[in-house]
């Protein structure tokens, strides 16, 4: 029996990418558990040929996936700058002040909301991962540790949190019940309020072979026209859209209540037309994607095997979810990449899920003097390549595997 689409309910029959068996990408293994087994699940993305939502099947409840989350947004300089610019732009666009209310869904450690709070604008974070919510509260960012949806929104509304601005950055893809989640925005958003949704663009994912952004925590992979249709189902209207460089190419969608005063811009229609031109309503585009994925796997393995045969030392930088998808799909372990490093202390002194590659502090690279450093969060390649410039002193080079194998200057 075929599974059903989480958006429209129609049967799912067409594969977008089959990445084999994989553990949850953020389930880092404590060193004390190095000899224990891990639970693995099929990592299989399908496309709905009715509404065109790309999605993975859910095997684990969000309560387990996000109970103890290891990602902290404040560790990326680029993301902090992105948040500061967003806050400044929205404050000016909406005229936000001490009488306004900003609510961010999946607020993580409060990196975005701090920019509003510093301007005296009342703000509330909604963050289901309690360990991350505690970090936000310690930084004086009011945060509710709950999953967001229709009932949650009604409770927040009753508690006086009706929002002039609602922000949802890189969370729409993380919710299994996307209809309940979006309904929460309809409930909590003020009549003339504004909601923004940021998400990696499916068009960019396909064009740039970003298959490693597929993992169990990402339930959906989104195009503008799919998001527009889902929002319309819940009485919300997309009136503007922006292209962003984050996460390999993202969209920021601006939405409001159907009868709000915001005028719909021509770019919404233009972007939907460009998605159509890219084949996002044509099954052939989705079937062709799998071939590119296999080619990348072969090229990455060829590079690492040749490096090993030549006596080259290879390590990695970063421990992102996307890196774990790549490494598990390719079958790359510590025999090919000795270790990786990460600035996030929650990830240090653990093992990557599945591959069991050790995660160390960044200082380990200077001590090891590797020939190659594979940048796993390729969306931060320029920032990390700059930070790693010191490895050139001994002839070291940075490498990325997505969209293709490339040794960086």
Would you mind describing this structure in some detail?
- The termini are far apart.
- The protein contains 13 helices and 19 strands.
- The chain has two domains: 73-283, Rossmann fold (3-Layer(aba) Sandwich); 291-407, Rossmann fold (3-Layer(aba) Sandwich), CATH 3.40.50.720.
- The strands form three sheets. It has an eight-stranded mixed beta sheet with strand order 2-15-16-14-13-17-18-19.
- It is globular and about 65 Å long.
- The protein has 409 residues and is of the alpha/beta class.
- It is 33% helix and 22% strand.
- Helix 5 (150-158) packs parallel to helix 6 (178-188).
What is the fold named in CATH at topology level of the largest domain?
Answer: Rossmann fold
What quaternary form is this?
Answer: single chain
Annotation, overall tally of beta strands: 19
Low-confidence stretches: none
CATH superfamily of the largest domain: Vaccinia Virus protein VP39
Mind telling me which CATH architecture of the largest domain this is? 3-Layer(aba) Sandwich
Helix/strand class:
alpha/beta
Question: How is the secondary structure organized here?
Answer:
Layout: E1 14-22, E2 29-30, E3 41-47, E4 54-56, H1 62-65, H2 77-94, E5 102-105, H3 113-117, E6 123-126, H4 130-138, E7 143-144, H5 150-158, E8 163-169, H6 178-188, E9 189-200, H7 202-207, E10 220-221, H8 224-233, E11 236-244, E12 250-257, H9 266-277, H10 283-309, E13 314-317, H11 321-330, E14 340-341, E15 350-351, E16 358-360, H12 363-368, E17 372-375, H13 381-387, E18 397-400, E19 406-407
Parallel strand pairs: 5-6, 5-8, 6-7, 8-9, 13-14, 13-17, 14-16, 17-18
Antiparallel strand pairs: 1-3, 2-15, 3-4, 4-10, 9-12, 11-12, 15-16, 18-19
Helix pairs in contact: 5-6
């Amino acid at each position: 029996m075929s599974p059903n689409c989480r958006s429209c309910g129609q049967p799912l029959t067409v594969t977008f990418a089959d990445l084999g068996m994989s553990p949850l990408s953020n389930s880092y293994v404590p060193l004390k558990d190095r000899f224990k087994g891990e639970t693995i699940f099929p990592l299989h993305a399908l496309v709905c040929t009715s509404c065109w939502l790309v999605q993975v099947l859910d095997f684990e409840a969000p309560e387990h996936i996000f109970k103890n989350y290891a990602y902290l947004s404040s560790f990326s300089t680029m993301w902090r700058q992105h948040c500061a610019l967003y806050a400044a732009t929205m404050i000016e666009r909406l005229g936000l002040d001490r009488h306004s209310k900003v609510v961010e869904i999946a607020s993580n450690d409060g990196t975005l909301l701090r920019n509003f709070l510093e301007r005296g604008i009342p703000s509330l974070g909604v963050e289901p991962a309690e360990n991350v919510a505690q970090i936000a509260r310690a930084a004086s960012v009011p945060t509710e540790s709950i999953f967001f949806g229709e009932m949650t929104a009604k409770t927040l509304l009753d508690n006086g949190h009706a929002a002039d601005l609602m922000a949802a950055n890189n969370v729409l893809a993380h919710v299994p019940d996307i209809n309940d989640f979006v309904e929460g925005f309809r409930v909590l958003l003020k009549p003339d309020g504004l909601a923004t949704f940021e998400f990696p663009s499916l068009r960019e994912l396909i064009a740039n072979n970003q298959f490693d952004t597929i993992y169990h925590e990402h339930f959906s992979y989104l195009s503008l026209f799919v998001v527009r249709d889902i929002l319309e189902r819940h009485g919300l209207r997309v009136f503007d859209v922006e292209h962003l460089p984050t996460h390999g190419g993202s969209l920021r969608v601006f939405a409001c209540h159907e009868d709000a005063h915001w005028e719909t811009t021509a770019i919404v229609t233009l972007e939907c037309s460009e998605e159509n031109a890219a084949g996002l309503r044509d099954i052939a585009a989705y079937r062709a994607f799998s071939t590119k994925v296999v080619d990348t796997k072969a090229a990455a393995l060829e590079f690492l095997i040749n490096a090993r045969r030549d006596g080259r030392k290879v390590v990695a930088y970063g421990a992102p979810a996307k890196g774990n998808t790549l490494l598990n799909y390719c079958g790359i372990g510590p025999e090919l990449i000795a270790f990786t490093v990460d600035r996030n202390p929650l990830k240090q002194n653990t093992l990557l899920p599945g591959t069991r590659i050790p995660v160390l502090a960044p200082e380990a690279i200077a001590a090891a003097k590797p020939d190659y450093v594979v940048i796993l969060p390729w969306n931060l390649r320029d920032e990390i390549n700059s930070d790693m410039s010191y490895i050139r002193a001994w002839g070291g080079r940075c490498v990325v595997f997505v969209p293709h194998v490339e040794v960086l200057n």
